[in-house]
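Human: Note token order:
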Amino acid sequence: MTIELSLVLCLLAVAVILFARGRPPMDAVALIVIAALPLTGVITVPEALAGFADPNVILIAALFVIGDALVRTGIAQWLGDRLAAGAGSSEARLIIFLMLAAAGLGSFMSSTGVVAIFIPIVLRIARTANLPPGRLMMPLSTAALISGMMTLVATAPNMVISSELVRRGYEGFGFFAFTPFGLPILMLAILYMLAVRGRLAGKAELPPPRPGIRDWVRNYALAGREVRLRLVPGSDLAGKPLETLDLRASAGVNIVAIERQGRLRRELIRPEAQTELRAGDILLLDIIGSQFDADAFRDRHRLEELPLDPAFFTDRMQQFGMAEVIVPSGSSLAGRTPMESRFRSVHDLAVIGVRRGNDPLEGVAAQQRIAVGDTLLLAGPWRAVRRLGEQRRDMILLDLPEEADDYAPKRSRAPHTLAVLLAVIVAMATGVLPNVQVALLGCLALGLLGCVDMVSAYRSIHWQTLILIAGMLPFALALERTGGVGMAAQALVSMLGEAHPRMILAVIFAATAILGLFISNTATAVLMGPVALTIAETLGHSPMPFAMTVALGASAAFMTPVSSPVNTLVVGPGGYRFGDFVRIGVPFAMVTLVVAVLLVPVFLPF
């Protein structure tokens, strides 16, 4: 063993120990590796930094943006809602649908992102079904990990292994090359989770529910305080702009929102001075005059009264937001009514309820004199609600309704996002362009179509993951250049002797999965990929089954809560302990090993 190889192995051992300890963070360890590797003299500084120019790093960043578009346009949330509706009250059906949805969505976006999307959905479903969250969280994380065995772009290790094949002069994996192995493993995982679900309860309790809009309607005694009227044909309000009507002064009402029929559905539009009313418009009115006569107003202007209940607000949460704020000491609102402080004009929100202590104030909210400590219920467009977080002097945001979790700011762009996603999948599957180019074009298309913006795109990228990948890629080059890869491969070949190639695959899978207990699956793929390919070349076999085995083993991170960020995310919500993953994950990792050893040579012959 040369001095250079000893230095590289020592640095690798230090990195593994730091990964296992969890301190410093994994991305910081990757930066330490980038800085330290050139000091060994094995690789140069440009070579240590070359990982940041690797096409797979750019591809993963682009996939984070595409995944964010699925969230911002409500597609991911829609999927969760359909999941809950389809499962009904059956726990078994819920687990099946949950795992299918997570694996399906994770096939085309980050599995970590999938789990982050589904955790609040699962908690809400668990609360509704009165189930311990732990009975659903581990099936969620398992399915998300298996999604990495579905497509080329589902997880970083797949792309790392494919890139290593190309670097050595072989043909990389196709988009759906992993699917014949992932689907059977997913089916077995579903059966396994159904069989062991009684041991998945964990110790977590459901968190107390956040207030919902129905709670606020009751707590602020809003029933009867808001009126919903439709302009029938012939109404004298039709065709007139709001500034000429001045309904505040003439009728004692304030228009909170206007419902108008769009091309595909009814939409809420913001009432502005220039807004011209049309026949068929539905007005949501806030009564601000104590002498307002709803019947006389309706008859005079030929309006039809429509029912108004909490469902009205919950059904329109994508367009119509609500929030609860408190008035702090020194607020300019104290001692004045919302009308006197021109609250609507300044904040683009209407005060529809006021509470002093635990009691709602009776009468018209806009005419209540506000005191320090009062809580106000506000309603209006979401963009105005979101700005409340920046307020500190006049009011402090207390809470948003639980329905706010379902808000998707770009929901109207969902069809565009689906079209772009389909085009990206087809282009990657057919190979008309390099995958990284397809993903970048998809991101540009999403931006041009208004599905994402630059701020949200940059925010959606998990930079720690990219730094980790870029930092670990130089290790493969350093180990290969110092002969470390060849030594490891030769040691395995010598140990296995004349063993059947399937036995060699089993050892490679086990080594990859065990190494993944201590470092990330991406780093595992970086290190084990060259070893597996060298073994294949030494034995004179096709490299494809060996590379595929490493990829599958890298995704089989079921055994500990730290072997993948996917598992780490569900530990808290599921109330799991370290031993829960060992007890449930190790047997299924062995099942996955058997499936891989049996199926890989069938689809990828030696």
User: Anything to note?
Assistant: The CA atoms of residues 158 and 456 lie 26 Å apart.
